[in-house]
Amino acid sequence: MTFASVQIENLLALRGQPPKVTPEAAAAVAQELYGLSARVTSLDGERDRNFRLDCADGRQFVLKFLDFQADDTVAAGQSAVLAHLEARDEQLPVPRLIRTLAGEELGSAAICGSAPVSGSERCRVRLMSYLPGKLIQAVSPASPALLREVGGTIARLDRALAGFAHPALGQPIVWDVRQAPTLMSVLPDVESASTRRLLSHALAPVELLLPRLKALRSQAIHGDCHGKNVLVSDGGDRCVGIIDLGDMIQAPLVLEIAVTLAEFLTDGVASLDGSGELLAGYAQSQPLSKQDVEALFDLVSARIAIGVLIQTWRERNSTGSAQTSAGLEASSVNALGTLAERGRNRLTREWLDSAGVEASLLRRRYRALGANAELSYDRPLHLVRGDGVWVFTADGERLLDVYNNVPHVGHAHPVVAEAIAGQLRKIASNTRYLDERIIEYVERLTATLPPDLDTCLFVNSGSEANDIAWRIAKSHTGNIGALVMKHAYHGITDAVTALSPAIASAVPPHVEQLNAPHSIDGVAAAESDVSGAIDRLAKRGFKLAVLMMDSAVTSTGIYDPPREWIAPIAQAVHAAGGLIIGDEVQFGLGRSGTHFWGFARRGYHPDIVTLGKPVGNGYPLGVVVTRRSILEKFQKDTGFFSTFGGNPVAGAAGLAVLEVIEKERLLENARTTGDYFIGRLREVGAAHECVREVRGRGLMIGVEVTDKALTRRIVNGLRDRGVLIGSEGPLGNVLKLRPPMPFRPEHADLVIEALTSTLCAVRP
Ligand code: PMP
Questions:
Q1: Is the pTM higher than 0.70?
Q2: According to the CATH classification, is domain 133-375 in 3.30.420.40?
Q3: 11-130: in CATH 3.30.200.20
Q4: Within 13 A of 336's CA, how many CA atoms are on the CB side?
């Protein structure tokens, strides 16, 4: 008989017919079959009739009168398993079988008038040792330590059960999740439409799961370790027993813990976090495979769902147990909701971690870096390799990188990698020694800049470069007032955070903000905007030291304003005695496609240029370029030295990047591909109402959409379609497309295709 062919009425444990036995009759049977004189107390039992025997000498037993409908094979299996467990693990806290005076595993007693059986009927009887303790259900929620211990005890039971074979293990029991397809016929009887939906959602994966289950390790399992079958100490802090092996089956091992998880989650013995403890305790003594744990979510959900179906069937067929179906339904719906909310992927990752199968990188990251360390995308990426504009995940997924600008000349560019590695193999010292690399780099770099920007100072990041540039500007001008763009970002040091309204908790009094170019209408408006800001600083007692300016206006929303916009601003800053720091961390090295430097495209002449991110193509390199007179004074005043700044490896990296940009004509590529890409993006924008504007230049492109929530959906939708982009702007509603420079029109086509299907999918 295959499981699937079982008719619902034939499933065991669906109906029970406990014999009607009085305590007096039980006492008589105890005496007659076992020679025990005992006080008798009734115990709970779904199918069998159970009594506790308290003997005068302190010994305690459970006397079971078996369900009349209990199958002979199943009854024999029960006796056999108890004997097996005793032989395998004497200390295992499960009941021990006590034979009759005649040495039989099962006794037989005449029960008088036990309706519906008329007259005198023989009933099978089993005596077992009584395990003291209370039901774990009474201590819910159980402590993490207790859940771990329960997990460990169940695992120990399973280890002892391994190798047990008996025909009883094939019983088609209704509680076996694999019977779910048969139970589905009950679904229409569930009254609430929303519960029906939830149940069918929970049971839908079972069909696909069944063949997978066949491939999992299978053995005899208890199959019913729920809140009323697990005993704990009176203090509720120790697991002291597991009872009732009446539902044992041959099944995938993981079903054991799935049942417990399902039951504990439903009746509140464990929360989802507690589920990890239970699993950890189990897996510590009974290791689970990745495939086992990956089946858990569906098994747990299905087991909860079939509980409701069984209850519904019983109610319909008037064999309902004490718990009302309304109560069970509510707690089951609640448990299924909690599972769904955490989600299969996340919970499976957590369970894999708890079970020690695979300490998920994400959880290790939480622990190592803190739960609030930023991560891109709802489905975080584990990147293991890059190649040009492509990145590859640990799972072998290939994604098009339309976001990262650190790999300016492409991920893992062999020329850069070789230059860095080659230099590292020779020497990595610091700038207090003579070295050719860094000098050659300065010579090559300054050759691309206006002649007065002729000397460099080296640090290790864009933030540091801006921090030092700010110090230089302050000492050069003797002033401490600053102008920045609205929602600007310039880095993470204390001083530079103050110049970064995008992250500063409050903009300090020595800083004023200029309005974003799109909100400035004409030269006169730009003039009055900047002079107003300088006046406000003056009123607060701050003379202008600096205007710090990201030429791509990236964090402000990615703009490409006409050159007229900057002229009055630059003029006013210089007239007020301030310097201009051109922050080229984003727009430098040809990203605009029209100019090698962003300030040249904007049309201003900076006094200091700062470089970061792309200049080392992944090697940490920050550069401050300025006039010799300014730098020499700063060096004299401060004796500036940065240990890693400008070391020979940094020089080798920087040189290699410049060489590749030139050789591969990446500036030209940024122009032609950028023009093509922006054109195609505008076509897409014209067809989708949610796209407000496509702007930017070269390979620095912003696509403004209606709101932040939509931006998030698009970013994640593209990630799911193999395209990585980011988001930007004060309102977080600008898609940020800023790929490595070897990005070609065919890559743009892939983005357009993915973007079109994403926009259709996320359409509000
Ligand atoms: N300036 C700008 C314009 C930036 O975009 C960034 C980084 N995103 C920085 C400075 C700071 O660079 P880093 O993170 O290397 O310190």
A1: no
A2: no
A3: yes
A4: 26
Domain ranges of the chain: 11-130, 133-375, 383-408+666-762
Q: Is 411 left (phi over 0), alpha (psi -120 to 50) or beta?
A: beta
Distance CA 282, CA 225 (A): 12
Give the mutation target among 547, 559, 586, 727 for probing the ligand 1 site: most ligand atoms within 8 A of CB. Answer: 586
Q: What is the pLDDT of residues 594-606, one digit of tens each?
A: 999 999 999 999 9
CB 419 within 8 A of CB 583: no
How many angstroms separate the Cα of 276 from the Cα of each of 225, 252, 346, 606? 17, 20, 12, 57
Please, which residues have CB within 8 angstroms of residue 732's CB and are 6 or more apart in sequence?
708, 711, 712
Question: Picking from 4-18, 206-220, 624-638, 651-665, which range would have the lowest pLDDT averaged per residue?
Answer: 4-18
Question: From the CA of 530, how far away is ligand 1's center (Å)?
Answer: 24
The whole-number average pLDDT for the span 348-376 is 82
- Predicted confidence band at 356 (pLDDT cuts at 50, 70, 90)? confident
What pLDDT, on a 0 to 100 scale, did the predictor assign at position 114?
47
> Higher model confidence: residue 368 or residue 224?
224
How far apart are the CA of 486 and the centre of ligand 1, in A?
Answer: 16
Q: What is the CATH number of domain 383-408+666-762?
A: 3.90.1150.10
pLDDT higher than 50, residue 1: no
- The residue whose CA is least distant from atom 7 of ligand 1 is 491
CA of 463 to the centre of ligand 1 (A): 6
Residue with tokens 């803190």: 370
Amino acid at 730: P
